[in-house]
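Quick check before the chapter quiz. The format below is the same one you will see on the exam, so make sure you can read both the input and the output lines.
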Amino acid sequence: RSNGTDWEWLGVGKSTWADKPATAPLGQIICITDIGENGSLWRGDGTKWVRLHSIKFYDLSAAVVLTGTTLGTTLATITIPAGLIGANGKVKFYPLWSNTNNANIKTLRVVLNGATTYTAVSSNSVHNSGLLILRNFNSETAQRMSSGMVAGLGSTTGSIAATTIDTTTPVTVTVTGQLSYSTDTMTLEGLFLEIS
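Here is the expected output.
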């Protein structure tokens, strides 16, 4: 039985993502202590470790303000460890941003390993909330996602975006903002990443 603080009492091993056992015995459960809000549970399927639940991977801790430039500017950078997403995994990005309410264009982008995978353009609005779901399609090097929708849900005339990002290596997520007029302001109020 657990003493309330030690997973070892339950027969559940613990490890960091980088130091997890290379073998994943069928049915064995481990706690990965450095992935997720309070760690995450993984079960061996005989060949690899399989996530048992969705993981709150990243949550922006403070708002980031952009003003005074028209250059594309990095607002957040997150690294997803190699192999964490899995062949059929998904990464859900939930950005929340506010901006000057006028007709000028403000652009938010999500860039993965240097490739722009999401672009949301806004004007005449006070704030926006988006959803981007990156889906590995039975491969850790082939993805699909919707395009052309700020909200990330619904219908669009845009095509389904396809990328070939190798998620067996670390994936760098960069969120950028760009203003058409430097006197405007764009603020990344929140950014949440979930891996399932």
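If your answer matched, good. The two ends are 29 Å apart (CA to CA).
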